[in-house]
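Record type: monomer structure entry
Structure origin: computed from sequence
Chain ID: A
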Amino acid sequence: MTIDRNTMEPYAEVRKDMRRKVVDAKEMRELTFSDIEEATGIDKTYIASAVYDGASTTEEEAIAIAEAVGLGGEEDVIEGLQIPPMKGQEDPSIPSDPALYRFYEVPQVYGPAMKAIMHEEFGDGIMSAIDFEVSVDKEIQDGEEHVVITYDGKFLPYKKFP
């Protein structure tokens, strides 16, 4: 099979078809990612990330997710969940969707402060986005719903040259 290294075709189409089937099945059954997590024991954010091109799964995880949404035995779905996605391929402009825009706005507002604290506490380096987990949870604070987003990445110190 010949792979276009820029678009990763035909893998991108397999993932796109998988996403459409999983999202359609999830909506038809009125499932949430939390429901799928409960059925599979796999973290809901990881499942969503695998469906929306942020991660790939093992075969065992793919089978469990497919079964949880009623697509057990659909080999193209199971295969699509396992294919490593092309990450960061979305439009480079800032999104107009308000929820996605906030994920750009937060580091613009708080990024320098977060970076300064990270450097104070860890030294000169960065947070890994490979040895990394993200979670999205709901929490009630003072009677109001709050979104709690947690980034958990390994610290990678910059190498010093001799």
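Annotation 1: The helical segments are 11-28, 33-40, 44-51, 59-68, 75-82, 98-122.
Annotation 2: The domain at 98-157 is CATH 3.30.1160.10 (Cyanate Lyase; Chain: A, domain 2).
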